[in-house]
Structures are given as C-alpha cells and as structure tokens.
Amino acid sequence: MSNNARHLTGMHNALRRLALPTLLALAGLCTGIGALAAGERPVVQGTLSAPATAVPAAAATPVVAAPAAPAAPAAPAATFAVEPAAPATPPVLVNGLVRVPDGRLLAPDIARIVTRGELVVAMLKVDTPPFFFFDDSGQWTGLEVGLAQSLAKELGVKLRFNREAGTFNAVVDLLANGQADLAISKLSRTLARSQTIAFSDSYLTLNHSLILNRVKFAQLSRGRPLPEVIRNFDGSIGVIAKSSFADYARTNFPHAKVQEYATWNDVLVAVNKGEIVSAYRDEFEVKRVLKADPTVSLVLRTVTLKDLEDTLGIGVAVTDTTLLAYVNQFLAQRAEKLDIQKVLQALDR
User: Fold this and answer.
1) Which PANTHER family match (predicted)?
2) 206-311 is classed in which CATH architecture?
C-alpha cells in the first residue's frame, strides 16, 4: 500500500471514531427538545438534565404552567357556597302548605313570619297619640301598638316596628315594597291605596270633620244656611300633603281650593291665621284640637260630616291572602272594639 493510501485509510478511521459520539450527542439533543415540547424535563442518555439550565427553560415555556392545575378543585367550592341558601325556603307541600321548624303546616305567608320569628309592622315615624307614641316614661305605647302586640302574640313571634316612613302614603310604600308584613298606622282605607295594598276590615270608623275660621267662613257664607254652604263649598281647604284627606277633599269638595301642607300643625296654624277658610280631617283629630285648647273655639268652629266616613284598616300585601284572612279573623274575635269615645278617653290617659 502506498503512503497516500495508508494516509487516507487513517483519516477515514479517525472520522468514524469522531462521528459516532457526535451522532449520539445529536440524538440525545433531539430527544431533549422533544421532551421539552411535551412538557417534560429533558433526559439525555438516561440522565436528568442539570437543574441550572432546565428549570429556566421550562419556566419560559407557557406549557410548564400546567403544575398549577391542582388549584382547579376551587371551582366546586364557589358552587357549594351558593347551594346552602336553598334550604332557607321551607319546602312547599303538594297542598300548598309549608312545614315550619316546629312541625306545623302553615300557609306560605304565615310560615314566612313564623320561620323568621318576627312580625314586622310599618308605622309612621311621627308620634300620633293615642294610637302610637312614647309616653312620659319613655314607653312605646298606644292603641295601635297594642293591636300589633296582640297580633304578634297570637302568631307566637317577636314584634318589630319599621318607622322609616315620614308620611302615611310612605307607610303604604314600605308594605308594598316588602319591608314590612303589615301596616298599622291610622291608615284610611282609600281607593288609591287599595290599588297597591290590601286592607283588612275596619277596626275604627270616624266621621269626616271640618275646622272653620269663623271670620273667613262668615265672609264666604254671606248669610246662607250652613248645610248649603258646606254642600257647595268653594272656599279654601287645608289638608296634609299626600294624605287620604287630600284625596277626600278633591272628591267631596270639587269646587274648593285645596291647599296641601307638610304637617297637620301647619294646617292648623294656617286656618287659625285666616290664611285658609277650613281644615279637613277626621273627627278625632278635629275634636282633639278643641280638647287640647278650648279657647280656640273663639276663633274656630267645627262641623262633623255624618254622611262621610273614614274607615281605618290594617294594610296587608296583596299577595298575602291567608295573612289578610288571619288579620280579619283576629279583628272579628277581638273583644274590645274601638269607637270615637274610646279613642278620646285613651287620649286622656
């Protein structure tokens, strides 16, 4: 063999010795890249790659974020947090009754109160003796407070008053908006209010009444008989704004000039000063004025309208039909019936 041939053979053998390790290394590198693409730590020749290089590479690959997957069970927890609210509504039976915690079967509207353990009554925030007021000792009392207490006792629950309302119509709104179970607040049963809430049977009937400024009324009447002037009254009438008597005045005295005031006291001041001819309200409130200060009769006179009645009832939500029937039965069985004389006597106490 020539020297050239021996030289070429030697080079060929050297290249073979170098190629095999290189190919193996390349094969390992390809395997590692494939493993990275699959989200695995790279393995070369059966040995874990060095953490110093493998970890940063993995961190830079979004796929490696998969280890956070164990947090997934948190989803059922959110669903579970909502589920416990369901048992708050007692199960309704086939016949429409609800089984309350003590085992009784009750109509849903009664069951709501019994399950809650509290009867919520809407009442005007302005004290109105003798119906609801704080007495000299700071005791919350009154004819209608007693009525509410008796109802709560019959139902076997506690009693709470919602006194957020500043007007009688606002009391109606509290009930209509679901912020009370009942409204007991010297509420007149009117057509307008009956479109929003239901009323119980009347527990007190009062006649309508006028307070007249003597001088102003004499000027208006011009010698005509009192009944004739009242039937065709075209003077000014003061009423509490947004009250039942604001509606009554426009209905019963269509020719009168109706003037609304924020409070009953404002109405009385106006009629006493002669700014209006008359003030219009129920006979109790009118008689109460003279009872509090008999000397006002020198300036004012009263007229009771026997043909016009103001009936007071307990307000109930239109959907609470069984509660309404319950309240009516309660009033029917109540031994003490209210009338104007008993109300005036209560005012003395």
Assistant:
1) MEMBRANE-BOUND LYTIC MUREIN TRANSGLYCOSYLASE F
2) 3-Layer(aba) Sandwich (3.40)
